[in-house]
Amino acid sequence: MDKEEINKEIKPIIWDDDNNQLILIDQRALPNELKYFPCNTYEDVAFAIRDMVVRGAPAIGISAAYGMALAEIKNEDIERAYNTLKNTRPTAINLFWTLNRCMNAYNNNKPIIDEAKLIHMEDIEICKKIGKIGEKIIEDGDTILTHCNAGALATSSYGTALSVIRFAYYNGKNIRVIADETRPRLQGAKLTAFELNYEGIPVKIITDNTAGFLMKKGLVDKVIVGADRILKDYTVFNKIGTYSLAILAKYHNIPFYVAAPLSTFDFKNSLNDIEIEERDEKEVLFIDGSRIAPEGVGVYNYAFDSTPPELITGIITEKEIITINKKP
Predict the structure, then answer these.
(1) Left (φ > 0), alpha (ψ -120 to 50) or beta: where does 158 sit?
(2) Domains in the chain: boundaries
């Protein structure tokens, strides 16, 4: 099988026309089990987004679009479906972008399911373009550090940061990947490592507090991450820990890139307008149901942080690589 075709087998989002059903890979079960989560109503989709059955900004947006379609197909209150889905998670802008597209389609008497399918297909092509454009920054022999999961499981296919890595690999570049575990939900260890290992791309996992030491030893050539929202001044909101990595990369003169579609850009809001999601403290206090901290201890569990543009080398989009700062 051609290497570019392998990734097409990872389908995190499937629309079943025969049964008017959205089927999602249940990412809570990975990497131990490949399970699917069927959504028959917009409430099912809202639960899947809130509980991180599906996660990653583009994937959340696509799923929400299908949620709107389910509401229309079942003759339910579209405004209520819109508001329910909008309130599932506050930080990733793709959610609001796709919901607004679906509402505009509805208001113009166009079937929402057609708009949802269009958003889905567009994302596949966008991810491929990000990979093909972005792989030019990767040199043969590079070791790339990535954070959280910005792969096929976070989008519709290929991914954003992982699409860049994939296409470098498809083009025969000898590369290695370091995936930090990304506490507290371990998306790097559970999801990124799963995807890369599935395709035979060399990957090693590190604990989140190991990155600086590896950079000091000269074992990291580039850092590439995804994004959940990018402001007009190029401030990047991404999984908590991204800001720390950017500081470490700057100190060690390592290029720090962000890969994201143009739909992730927010040209209306400023830094103080963005709500940073805080999630349940149990995500930190428990691992697989076992308590790892004393009872009565409090938790800061921010899901995202913001990275200022002075720490970013460039942003890889489906149109171009936007250079923000010259490479170290």
Answers:
(1) left
(2) 3-125, 131-323
The dotted CATH code for 131-323 is: 3.40.50.10470
Q: Sign (positive/negative) of CA torsion 9, 14, 15, 19?
A: positive
Query: Could you report the per-residue pLDDT of 240-261, keeping only the tens digit for each?
Result: 999 999 999 999 999 999 999 9
Q: Per residue in 153-180, pLDDT tens?
A: 999 999 999 999 999 999 999 999 999 9
Please confirm, yes or no, whether 228 is among the known catalytic residues: yes
Neighbour-count burial of 137, counting CB atoms closer than 10 A to its CB (0-12 exposed, 13-18 middle, 19+ buried) = buried
Beta strands in 226-326 (DSSP E): 229-231, 236-239, 256-259, 265-266, 286-287, 290-291, 304-307, 314-316, 321-323
Mean per-residue pLDDT of the chain: 95
Annotated binding site for substrate: 55-57, 89, 187, 238-239
To the question of pTM greater than 0.85 for the whole model, the response is yes
Catalytic choice (228, 233, 273, 305): 228
In order of 76, 89, 202, 283, the CA distances from 150 in angstroms are: 33, 17, 17, 20
Residue numbers in the known binding site are: 55-57, 89, 187, 238-239
Query: Which class is domain 3-125?
Result: mainly alpha
